[in-house]
């Protein structure tokens, strides 16, 4: 059986950290990182606020992301091999795809594909603190967090709630270890229930 799991939520909630740990513990597990689908910098719109609008769906090549997901759905074994994931002979029937990113549940062609949608959040102050310690390929200009990142997070989250998208909320303030064990057990149960 194959399942697609979303590790979504706010920037700096701990999505990438959690996803990378889960991959090591799950059978035949591939990851698709939404961050890999950011468009080049010269294609990112500049808003009326003067900021490059990185945190909107239009800044991501979502068609390419969906095509990548479809390639996994067509042939997870081939996809795993192509992405350097060794397929375990005793579990070849089980395949897990982890989609990881900050706008996983706002793009209609993806939203119904998930067996489980996790949503990691931390309080505003902690998010801002973690973000200020991060170095992205394109560094945040002063004021970006409050002027663009946080308002866009709130906007998309509100839309998701209005659309009734069901998510499993995760408290990103828990330790890395606690989150890992909580989600691993839950995914294992999802696998058992779908077999
Ligand atoms: N459970 C956690 N508790 C404390 N810090 C964490 C936790 N998970 C991740 N971090 C740290 O927070 C920052 C953002 O983590 P990351 O996994 O890159 O988040 P995201 O992919 O959601 O932006 C990193 O410095 C990471 O080491
Ligand atoms: O990866 C990039 O090229 C990149 C370039 C500019 C900005 N980002 C930021 O990456 C953030 C999403 O990644 P993450 O891991 O913080 O969830 C998002 O808030 C963007 O502002 C990312
Ligand atoms: Mg990340």
TrEMBL record:
<keyword id="KW-0418">Kinase</keyword>
<dbReference type="GO" id="GO:0046495">
    <property type="term" value="P:nicotinamide riboside metabolic process"/>
</dbReference>
<dbReference type="GO" id="GO:0061769">
    <property type="term" value="F:nicotinate riboside kinase activity"/>
</dbReference>
<keyword id="KW-0547">Nucleotide-binding</keyword>
<dbReference type="Pfam" id="PF13238">
    <property type="entry name" value="AAA_18"/>
</dbReference>
<dbReference type="GO" id="GO:0005654">
    <property type="term" value="C:nucleoplasm"/>
</dbReference>
<dbReference type="InterPro" id="IPR027417">
    <property type="entry name" value="P-loop_NTPase"/>
</dbReference>
<keyword id="KW-0479">Metal-binding</keyword>
<keyword id="KW-0067">ATP-binding</keyword>
<comment type="pathway">
    <text>Cofactor biosynthesis; NAD(+) biosynthesis.</text>
</comment>
<protein>
    <submittedName>
        <fullName>Nicotinamide riboside kinase 2</fullName>
    </submittedName>
</protein>
<dbReference type="GO" id="GO:0046872">
    <property type="term" value="F:metal ion binding"/>
</dbReference>
<keyword id="KW-0808">Transferase</keyword>
<dbReference type="GO" id="GO:0005886">
    <property type="term" value="C:plasma membrane"/>
</dbReference>
<dbReference type="GO" id="GO:0045662">
    <property type="term" value="P:negative regulation of myoblast differentiation"/>
</dbReference>
<dbReference type="GO" id="GO:0006741">
    <property type="term" value="P:NADP+ biosynthetic process"/>
</dbReference>
<dbReference type="GO" id="GO:0050262">
    <property type="term" value="F:ribosylnicotinamide kinase activity"/>
</dbReference>
<dbReference type="GO" id="GO:0005829">
    <property type="term" value="C:cytosol"/>
</dbReference>
<comment type="similarity">
    <text>Belongs to the uridine kinase family. NRK subfamily.</text>
</comment>
<keyword id="KW-0460">Magnesium</keyword>
<keyword id="KW-0662">Pyridine nucleotide biosynthesis</keyword>
<dbReference type="GO" id="GO:0034355">
    <property type="term" value="P:NAD+ biosynthetic process via the salvage pathway"/>
</dbReference>
<dbReference type="GO" id="GO:0005524">
    <property type="term" value="F:ATP binding"/>
</dbReference>
């Amino acid at each position: 059986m194959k399942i697609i799991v979303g590790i979504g939520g706010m920037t700096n909630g701990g999505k990438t950290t959690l996803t990378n740990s889960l991959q090591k513990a799950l059978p035949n597990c591939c990851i698709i990182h939404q961050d890999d689908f950011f468009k080049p910098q010269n294609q990112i719109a500049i808003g009326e606020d003067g900021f490059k609008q990185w945190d909107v769906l239009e800044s991501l090549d979502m068609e390419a992301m969906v095509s990548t997901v479809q390639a996994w759905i067509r042939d997870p074994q081939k996809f795993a091999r192509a992405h350097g994931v060794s397929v375990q002979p005793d579990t070849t029937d089980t395949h897990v795809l982890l989609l990881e990113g900050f706008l996983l549940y706002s793009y209609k062609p993806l939203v119904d594909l998930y067996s489980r949608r996790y949503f990691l959040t931390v309080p505003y102050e902690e998010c801002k603190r973690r973000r200020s310690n991060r170095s992205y390929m394109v560094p945040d200009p002063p004021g970006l967090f409050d002027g663009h990142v946080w308002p866009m997070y709130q906007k998309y989250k509100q839309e998701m709630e209005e659309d009734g998208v069901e998510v499993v909320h995760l408290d990103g303030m828990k330790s890395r270890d606690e989150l890992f064990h909580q989600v691993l057990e839950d995914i294992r149960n999802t696998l058992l229930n779908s077999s």
